[in-house]
Amino acid sequence: MIAGALLIILMTRLLGTTNYLGTGMGVIERAVGGETVAAAFLIKMVFTAVTLGCGFKGGEIVPTLFVGVTFGCLIGQIFGFSPSLAAACGMAALFCGVTNCPLSSLFLSFELFGFEAMPYFLLVVAVSYMESGYFGLYHSQKILYSKTKLQFINRKTRE
């Protein structure tokens, strides 16, 4: 744990910012506004992995939102889409992918970003749900029906 704490301190000092510690709500707000650091999603993943890997408590959902929104914003900037819309879609897609909860992801997106982008949210959540397979963040979660066949499967998600 001491080595992990020292590594987190060192990484924070090298970056010269505390944006990747804690929830990072300021970064999330800026990404929804259309601006992000290109490597923000990757840096947050490294910070979260080191934190959890060394035995510290870390988030599950907020880092997912952080990574999704910053990656989406970056993709929007690269490909010329609205970075704000891409950020919202990235957040919805990643949240759905890790939780295997498409309806919750849609309702969360509608609540946070409104209904104007509903077709985009529906599309990214559907693709994310299908592509996530039977893996998920919560291993006690049960998926009752197959995602690809009309079949009752009643199985738990895998890591």
Question: How do you describe this structure in short?
Answer:
By secondary structure, the chain is mainly alpha-helical. The protein has helices at residues 2-15, 25-32, 40-53, 61-79, 83-99, 102-113, 118-131; strands spanning 142-145, 152-156.
Unreliable stretches covering 5 or more consecutive residues: none
Number of helices: 7
Helix content: 55-70%
Structural class: mainly alpha
Order of helix and strand elements from N to C terminus: HHHHHHHEE
Tell me, briefly, the overall form.
flat
How far apart are the first and last residues' alpha carbons, in Å? 24 Å
Strand content: 5-15%
For the biggest sheet, the summary is:
2 strands, antiparallel
Average pLDDT over all residues: 95
Q: Any idea what the radius of gyration is? A: 17 Å
Number of β-strand runs: 2
Question: What does the oligomeric state look like here?
Answer: single chain
Strand order of the largest sheet: 1-2
